[in-house]
Amino acid sequence: MTHRVSLLRVAAAFCVAGAAWSAAPAHAGVFDDNEARRAVLDLRSKTDNLASQLSAAQRTILDQSGRLDQLNQQVATLRGENEDLTNRLTTLERQQKEYYQDLDTRLKKFEPQQATIDGVEGTVQPGETDALSAAQQQFRNGNFKAAAASFRAFIAKYPQSPYQPTAQYWYGNAQYALRDYRGSTATWQGIVSKFPQHPRAADALVAIGTNQLEQGQKAAAKKTFEQVVSQYAGSNAAQTAQGKLETIK
């Protein structure tokens, strides 16, 4: 706004100067030569001064326009830097979140965890589940000797594990598959004695009775099956035992 006023003033001054210049010849007779010369010089001085002011005003406008362009460029640069920093911050936050999630997952492998085994909830130590699963897989693959060794190692390594009844039950199965009938019976009997309320206890009794029946010990087998029917009435093991009893003559 200030520059526009200055330009208007300069233009007005030029108009006045032009009017004075054009009027000079009409009054030439009034002034002598010296006065006319001074008037011309004075007019030229004013004109030069006005021209200088106009030039200065133009330079000021150009200078401020250049500064405005520089400021706009600086603003654009700052916006770009801000966007870059925002993207970096977002990336760092994502990486930090992923890092802590990965760390939490790794730490959980070394922490006791709650697990449900054969319908019974318990706390298992790191490595227990994998060790038992590996032994069971060996049994499923028909590698009974290796499975028996793995179950035996598990039983010794994790004496307080809630997997103990399950591991002992499958250890007895591996012994049975290796024709170690006496050893398998002893293993299953240990489950019945130590963990009578565990779901595998009824299965162990059925296995003992089946072992006895196959060895020709019908009386002992009958007694064992009757114990299952009486002690674990309503269970799948009791139904199996009842079916076995019906085959004994």
Low-confidence stretches: 3-8, 10-24
CATH superfamily of the largest domain: Tetratricopeptide repeat domain
CATH C-level label of the largest domain: Mainly Alpha
Strand arrangement within the widest β-sheet reads 1-2
The CATH architecture of the largest domain can be named as: Alpha Horseshoe
Count of individual helical segments: 9
What fraction of residues sit in β-strands?
A: under 5%
Strand segment tally? 2
Kindly report the CATH topology of the largest domain: Serine Threonine Protein Phosphatase 5, Tetratricopeptide repeat
- The helix-strand sequence is HHEEHHHHHHH
Q: What does this 3D model show about the protein?
A:
This protein is mostly helical. It contains 9 helices and 2 strands; from the N terminus they run H-H-E-E-H-H-H-H-H-H-H. Strand 1 (113-117) and strand 2 form a beta hairpin. The radius of gyration is 53 Å and the shape is rod-shaped. It has a two-stranded antiparallel ribbon with strand order 1-2. The chain folds into 2 domains: 41-110; 113-245, Serine Threonine Protein Phosphatase 5, Tetratricopeptide repeat (Alpha Horseshoe), CATH 1.25.40. Helix 3 packs antiparallel against helix 4 (144-157), helix 6 packs antiparallel against helix 7 and helix 8 runs antiparallel to helix 9 (236-247). It has helices spanning 2-23, 33-108, 128-140, 144-157, 164-177, 181-194, 199-214, 218-231, 236-247, and strands spanning 113-117, 120-124. The model is unreliable at 3-8 and 10-24 (pLDDT under 50). The longest helix is centred in the first third of the chain and has 76 residues, at 33-108. It is 78% helix and 4% strand. 22% of the residues are buried.
